[in-house]
């Protein structure tokens, strides 16, 4: 049975709390998605989940409610390699959103250029078997080389159990790399656990590997208030302050059984970035360098 035969899913909170923490003016939500609207932007026939519509109006209302100024919209796997929904959201943002695309390896240079004009600044390689049918490393490396003239970076999503086998691939990527959700460590192991130590070795292997310190809801097996996430991730932010990004992950694909409160997610920020300076780097300086350089 494909996702298209199943009922459409709601994986986001209907009434998120207003956070206690006030993000600094200009803060960027650097990891979120849009779903559809399906009537205009149908989901991929290969989609592994079929969500209800969560389009740009909803995303921008949440941005304002949480106190953010800008979004980086990452093409979600349910839209495959058709980036139209993400591009449409960027157009509607009045310059307040940029994007990360997912592309077919056969994409032409002219099409890549068009994506750049549409506000894309990176390409995502997804290695989660539950989300994509295949992840051809050789073809991904070709794309990574071809996006270099555009000044783009590569976003890579994988889980901790394949970190070591990912190393030769990651070593060969010629652009800056952003690892989604820290490569999904088991944060209940703590800051000195095997997963965090392996991830730090990766960060130490190159100074142009960045990461998103995101998704306590996905990574903390003990759930809210995500204490294991806070104690494991705060030292990472302290040690790599210029290489970290933060995002809500709204509309939280596949989290329908444990939907996080977006306000509570924002309230995690001072627990992982306790000083004004760390918060400014995490929420403004770092994402601006990648997505709005020169502004
Ligand atoms: O939103 C995320 O980053 C994580 C996802 C969904 C995803 O990556 C996608 O659909 O492309 C997940 O773990 O299911």
UniProtKB/TrEMBL annotation:
Q: What class of enzyme is it?
A: hydrolase
Q: Name one Pfam family in it.
A: Amidohydro_2
The record's catalysed reaction(s) read: 2-oxo-2H-pyran-4,6-dicarboxylate + H2O = (1E)-4-oxobut-1-ene-1,2,4-tricarboxylate + H(+)
Which terms does the record give in the GO molecular function aspect? 2-pyrone-4,6-dicarboxylate lactonase activity
- Gene3D superfamilies documented for this protein: Metal-dependent hydrolases
Q: What is its EC number?
A: 3.1.1.57
- CDD domains annotated for this entry? PDC_hydrolase
Q: Keywords assigned by UniProt?
A: Aromatic hydrocarbons catabolism, Hydrolase
Q: Which residues form the Amidohydrolase-related domain?
A: 28-291
Q: Which GO terms describe its biological process?
A: 3,4-dihydroxybenzoate catabolic process
Tell me which family the UniProt entry assigns to this protein: Belongs to the metallo-dependent hydrolases superfamily. PDC hydrolase family.
Its protein name is: 2-pyrone-4,6-dicarboxylate lactonase
